[in-house]
Amino acid sequence: MDPDQNPAESISAAPLLVVMGVTGSGKTTVGAALGQRLRVPYADADDFHSEANVAKMSAGIPLDDGDRLPWLEAIGSWLAEHVVTGGVVSCSALKRAYRDVLRRSAPTVSFVHLDGAEEVVRRRVAGRPGHFMPASLVASQFETLEPLGPDEHGVVLDLGLPVDDLVEAYLASAPPLRTRSHPPTPTGPEPGSGNRTEQGE
Prior knowledge:
By secondary structure, the protein is an alpha/beta fold. The chain has a single domain, classed as P-loop containing nucleotide triphosphate hydrolases (Rossmann fold, 3-Layer(aba) Sandwich), CATH 3.40.50. 37% of the residues lie in helices and 11% in strands. It has a five-stranded parallel beta sheet with strand order 2-3-1-4-5, with helices on both faces. The two termini are 21 Å apart. The model is unreliable at 1-12 and 178-201 (pLDDT under 50).
């Protein structure tokens, strides 16, 4: 950081991401890979669930919004703690309202939605025995899913792609990292002094 740079000016320099999607979409694998590639901390939203939530899902009972709110708030707190350093968290974030909870804590967060066919996801979930999320809940997750709206900052990627390709696809779609959030000092002629050069981003 430049000696004369305000720490608040570097907030936009580090990526703050939520890798979202239904269970079995590859959130954990892709999220960890993005965290490693971007050299920022990574967290898995599964680790923020209460024991009661895990017990419900293990029994094949979908969580309700009352179950999810404390979980989402805990994830939002983690994101808020990593606004300056950057961070990646894997979280289903299926509904717009759930993403709004995260944005309230971390307004600069962006979403990476791993999207794909339900049958592909169902096969994946069936092939990972021992996970607390049974394949029987896949359908309910797709029913709950609300895709990113046009006003939500994020990108949609095909969950069927290899992990390395997904990481590269995100990097290709992401804006360049910036170290300052304020406009550069003008170097051209002063306004009204003749020819004027304007630069856009």
